[in-house]
Amino acid sequence: MKIHVFETSEQLDQYAAELFIDLIKAKPDAVLGLATGSTPIGIYAKIIEQAKQNNVSFGGVTTYNLDEYVGLPPENDQSYAFYMNQHLFSRIDIPANQTHLPNGMAEDPQAECKRYEAMLEERPADIQLLGLGHNGHIGFNEPDGGLSGPTHVVQLKEETREANARFFASMDHVPTEAFTMGVGSILKANTILLVVRGSDKARIVKEALTGPITTLVPASLLQTHPRVIVLLDREAGRMLE
User: Fold this and answer.
1) Structural domain 14-32+43-194+221-230, CATH architecture
2) Can 134 be counted among the known catalytic residues?
3) Catalytic one among 142, 152, 164, 233?
4) Which of 74, 79, 168, 239 has a CB 3.0–4.6 Å from the CB of 206, allowing a cystine?
């Protein structure tokens, strides 16, 4: 595990974007595992900027997103499909049929999980981008006595819904379920890039990276992966020696 601590968010975003751009230069048909939320927005902006500066094409790239809310259509402005189009896909030259998220409106959620997992097994990510929840969740894999390995539907914990409520009109509008890659799906990636910002995440960063490996802190399972790169701002890394 390699841990990098940055003085500014811009430095962090630049470093992360360079990892993606360098990968695509070396492997034009790279498979990218992507994430949503506030953490990656600056990274995506830097990727767009660097792709233009370096004349890097996404024409051969395939992407798979970590998760999607159950019950939100892609045109809903709080769906992760909408988010990805807004912050990345519509601003690079990636063909739409090479971008993948779980279908939040799938009539048969279990069949959708199997469909998505089959695609992940066929083409594992070269790099998987992750954020970190306050309770240690990665994707929507919530703390529990046991965790599902493959893609599955998860009942969102209240603390996770509350953390996401700022994006919705009210708590009543926050979905209660989501599709998510399982921890097993995530760990299949060749490289995992964990990005964390803010002093409010310092405790869980320390717990996840240096504490016991336990399903009660899902991110701690990243300690079992042979190639994890952790990018922290100064505040998120303040409890690490």
Assistant:
1) 3-Layer(aba) Sandwich (3.40)
2) no
3) 142
4) 239
